[in-house]
Here is the input.
Amino acid sequence: MNQRKVIIAPSILSADFGRLADEIAEVERAGCDWIHVDVMDGRFVPNLTIGPPVIRKIRKVSGLPFDVHLMIEDPIRYVEAFRDAGADYITVHVEASDGVGKTLEKIHAVGAKAGITLRPKTPVSTLEPFLQKVDLVLVMTVEPGFGGQAFMPDMLDKIEWVRTRFSGLISVDGGINLATGGLAVSKGADVLVIGSAIFKESDRKSFLLRLRKSLPSLSR
Here is the structure.
């Protein structure tokens, strides 16, 4: 089996927005692999964050893949704008519209990788029709909308369910830290989205080294 490194994707939702470019540069220098960008419209989830103009600006300061999670209604309307702004992965919610399949096709058509995700209370079986149409499945281990929430351990079963049916990347987002990251990886996660646990640290490189040492090896 091939040994692979777990992908670490800091979520800028937990960064200092007053110095966002510097925050991204710091986690990139520390050795992180992707940048995770949470986009919220205040309707699908009760919070507002950023849109394509901000992504276009930060794209200029980082060469890492941008993993953009759209927590918005009717996301097909904005796929092209986010891709043009610099998104490499675009992930949409199975609950966000009736046209999920067409949205995933649109994401691929504009040259991005497609991801699918769901709220914690949504049955994981709702993903099954889309597993052959996506490059990434994102398992939310908190309720989407706000950073800093506690990891929901009952979501580990969802990771395992997806792993038995899906050969692409599985990402896990919500409450990931030195204690929970290994649990997610042990169930089949390839990508750890990590927010407050890394951005609250003054020495991000040291934290990242400790995180990687705490994780089991990937071998698939």
In short: The mean pLDDT is 93. The longest strand covers residues 35-40. Residues 176 and 194 are 5 Å apart (CA to CA). The longest helix spans residues 20-30.
